[in-house]
Amino acid sequence: MTLIRLSLTDFRNHAGADLAAEAGLVALHGDNGAGKTNILEAISLLAPGRGLRRAPLSDMVRDGAGGGFAIFAEVQADRALPPVALGTGIEAAHPRRRLVRINGAAAAAASLGEWIAVLWLTPAMDRLFVETAGSRRRFLDRLVLALDPRHAQHSNRYDAALRARGKLLADLAVADQQWLTSLEAQLAEHGAAMDAARQSMLASLAAELAGQPDAPFARPLLTLTDSDGAARTAPHDPEALKAIFASRRRIDAAAGRATAGPHRDDLSAVHAATGRAAARCSTGEQKAMLLSLILAHSDCVARLRGARPVLLLDEVAAHLDPLRRAALYDRLAGQGGQAWLTGTEAALFADMPGPVTRFRIAGGRIAPG
Ligand SMILES: Nc1ncnc2c1ncn2[C@@H]1O[C@H](COP(=O)(O)OP(=O)(O)OP(=O)(O)O)[C@@H](O)[C@H]1O
């Protein structure tokens, strides 16, 4: 998948920007605060979800602009087909409602996943393995989404049913039992589908990683675990899940949250070469594992979906030694697809193998270079 055109209106510090890019590497360089990550964030919003900062939509409107914002892109998924036009943004009157247009027609955000897959690595993700299970689950679900666009619908419906059940359980004594049973049936159906998609993605990713060397990027071994840290290998059975939810109504009512289910699962990672848990590895090793994970996943999506996801690598190049940096560029250039990289120095990108589209960003302005 290639973004051949991107235009931004009142998005973060970009009042109006229009850029054309080619397949291959796209290098964005500019000083701190120039607006590089904002461009990557805009691209991340072309996929379902809240984007790479998970920020409220209203924060994304350019300060002082007073209205909404708009992101528009043309994406070429297949050279034989015309590009698809994707647009998203908000209007001033409805700052919480994300609007989406696909080829000019209004669409649900979840549908974006059918047209584009976007994977990213940002400095904020460096601590993923020591952060909360929630951030790892979100990361896991993004990996699944890149492979299986239906995942967004299942997880949206699961979350909606979970919230509705939580409201009913807040007053269990008067809760409509039939409505509870129906919500738990929805949780079981969508939860089992979500879980199956996670397990199938992890199996494909494990197979991809197994074929990759331990160097120059550290290879991780990944496992889906339950909330107690035990490995989960068999998919959730919908009937069993329904029974779990039904049997835990009192416990969940007392806890004020659903204490069991796929929304509590976690992703655990081990450094393959040393056998050490990722959380106990050095920051550099954790970064390297994430990079190798993302690169392997990109291969996985390319193999299974027939199109490579757009990769957004924010400040990744600056943290690699010259040997690893060259290895990263070679790998990205050799595989087709499109990867957007940011850095403060143009020199970081000087030796990239072509084709490379280069932009210099300064104060929210984008110029070729
Ligand atoms: N809604 C907004 N309106 C205007 N400016 C904003 C808005 N949100 C963020 N900014 C500003 O946009 C600028 C660019 O941010 P961005 O994160 O893209 O910088 P960057 O080029 O990636 O810098 P760094 O190299 O430091 O990571 C920052 O100064 C930030 O404060």
UniProtKB/TrEMBL annotation:
Start and end residues of each RecF/RecN/SMC N-terminal domain: 3-336
Residues engaged in binding ATP: G30, D31, N32, G33, A34, G35, K36, T37
SUPFAM superfamilies: P-loop containing nucleoside triphosphate hydrolases (SSF52540)
Compartmental location: Cytoplasm
Keywords of this entry: ATP-binding, Cytoplasm, DNA damage, DNA repair, DNA replication, DNA-binding, Nucleotide-binding, SOS response
Organism: Sphingopyxis macrogoltabida
Transmembrane segments: none
Single GO MF descriptor: single-stranded DNA binding
Cellular component aspect of the GO annotation: cytoplasm
Function of the protein: The RecF protein is involved in DNA metabolism; it is required for DNA replication and normal SOS inducibility. RecF binds preferentially to single-stranded, linear DNA. It also seems to bind ATP.
Family: Belongs to the RecF family.
Protein name according to UniProt: DNA replication and repair protein RecF
Domain of life: Bacteria
Keyword check for DNA damage: yes
GO biological process: DNA replication; DNA synthesis involved in DNA repair; double-strand break repair; SOS response
Pfam families: SMC_N
Major location (coarse): cytoplasm
